[in-house]
Design goal:
heterodimer; A: two-stranded antiparallel sheet; 17 helices; B: alpha+beta; 5-stranded antiparallel β-sheet
Chain lengths: ~350, ~450
Amino acid sequence: MNVLFYVSLLIYYMINHSLLNLPNVIDRNYLQNGLSALPIGLLLAALNAWMLLSVYNRFPKFTMVEINRYLCGKYLGNFLSIMYVALTAFFGFFMFRGLMEVIIEFLMPHTPVWFLAILLISVPSLALLHSDNSVIYMTAFFTLIAAVLMILVFWLGFKEIDPVMLQGVVYHGWKMPSLKGIVASAFVYGGYTGLYVMNPYFARTSIKLTFLLFVTVGLFLSLCGTVIPLAVWGPWALRNLNLIWIMTAETFSLDLFVLERGLFLMIPLLLITGYIGVFLYTYKGYRLLSLLMPRKATAKVIICCVLVSYVILSLLVQEPAVNYRYRELYMVVWFFYQNITGVLLYVLAKRKGRTPSAA
Amino acid sequence: MNEQIHKVNGMLETFLENNADARKEQVDGEQGFNLYYIMSVTERKVIYQQITDPYFRYSKTQFGQHIQSIGEECPPDQLLLRLCKGQTVLIYDDRVYTIKKSLKYATRSVSTPQVEASIVGPLEAFVESMAINLNLIRKHYQNPDLRVVKFEVGTTSHVSGYLLYDNELADKTFVDNELAQIKKLTIPNAQAVSKVQQHLPKRRSLLFPRSVVTERPDRTSQALSKGKCVYLIETSPFASIAPISFHDFMASMDDSYMLPVYSYFLLVLRYFALLATVILPGAYVAFTAFNPEVFRVQLALSIAGSRAGLPYPAFLEVTFMLVMMELLVEASLRVPKTIGPAATTVGGLILGEAASQANLVSDIMIIVVSAVAIANFVIPINPMSQTVRVLKYLLLFMGTVAGFFGLTIGFVLLVGYVFTLHNSNYSLVQSFKASVSLSTKSASAGRQSS
């Protein structure tokens, strides 16, 4: 049963980032980027996952905070954990603001942003009521819905592919990738970072299964997420588009009961993945903070402050391009953090070996 | 006569003066052999057969042994309470005994289920008698591992209840927790098992029920065989089952009696009904007032055309119709059965035909409200059906303030909240298959270790 929930967590990340992040980085800069970033990103993510999963499987009852403290010592360990919490909080905001963009642009264009932000903040606030297993079950539930919607959207997308555009996509696909493209590709597979909090629930996690999912589901979603918009619009037209998948879905015509625009399949999909994304990042931050702080109430107060800052920042950062630029930068920082800590923890775990208390 | 007996006699005499249905019988004045009982809750025949007649037939030693075997000595502070519970108080040989056997409560015989109808299942339902209810359960669950633990609830009403579980299958930690919680209960008057269940969790649930209340012995038996606990209260014709999963609220007993394909079809239908009844009112407001572009053009125009003559916004239209529908449902529940159909017919006519003709509501709104009402009644367990009746207003509110966006927020919040609900270590939504013992133990182990 736990394996299914682990799979759903990985797939959720893949759906979310292959639709929200990856196209924004690769498709918008496709003429400089190419598709070669996808396999390189996959390889790097797999390497990082292998190192981290090996470490986490050595300490099946520990979360990231305890592993960091044990392997790196109290100060460096806590510093690494706090760094990750900070990165989580930042990405939570990028997701929050990205979601607001969709809502403002397509659903509530005349409603004040502060009102939408306050309403939207209620979803991550719910994280304070949850426990590990309830989060896992909830993620699995919404992943199932998202997967169904995604299959529908991709199916519609395949029908709209223009063979001429596809030729152009293949032609430019072999160019040397940029760092941002590689990082965005690796980000799609980041579901295993859920173990930072939920390792005691899932451990021991199968590395083979993780790789299998990366190569099958992950690569397929990444490819579809990047190629379909490119093959519908063409690389040239996508250069200046924001919200690439939404604009792509807007071109899909369908005859589904009461719907006739693909956009209204895409919006629920983006909303669901976005809500759960913000929720998961908030929950991860909250759980890690509650492990780091002597009192749980302190963690709650900090998370509440972070959520309030989301509302305030979303009023200040109203330009989507700014949000995208910082998000791309964030992903590079995340990538380096992930890989450096991955190598560090792996080496330290090898040196220290398994202890009775940890096993 | 010793001082304690004198004091007890005084207490009993005062009780007799204050209660017109209390009786004192002096069996033998010389020996000081007196009986006290409450006529309305005592079987007079039993008193004669078990106490009066043996007294005159047996020797003093034999009678002493007989009384020891059928009665028990009673501390003075428990005396009046036991008298109220239908026991006979017997003062004999300077000792005070109480006899349980004389208890007699009026009850009805076993009848067909009134709330949980079944097409092919047994047609027996619990009644307000613990003896009959236990008899029904033992008939449906003939297992030596069945345990029956007696408890008392209500600091003023002192009603007896039973906790039943299968010793082999039930989670012992859960059972111990529940028994500990029962001991701590401080509700003054508990007349229904659902009220007891509300107070058992550490935090009282306000919206979602934490137990399934059933009147069916077969559902009770099925629950016991899945390792769940069953609560019975003396005054209630219902049993309460815990821990439960959300799926239990959507499952009817017929599901396990009928062919699998048909059962799954009905199950899917019920979940669809649940979604429809919760979402439709909010969705109507969201899609008519905020985001009509979601629908295909023909449908959007049809809805707009239907609402053309209406003088007020969509949310008022929906609220008006929903409130009217709730009034109709309440009226049909509360009025005497003889005039119930008339009230429903009149209400239905006014709501359906007249309101539409008077341009108070659109035709499509009538379809929506009818669908919501019908879908609500499809949910087989009544407490969940009542919860859902309230939930649709929450989503209506969210749809009214922020359209489709608000509706999705409301839905995610609602689902997210349901996922947080726990009864002890058991989550409400841990397993679709309702096999609590398997999935929840592993999950709770994970939780604890984390």
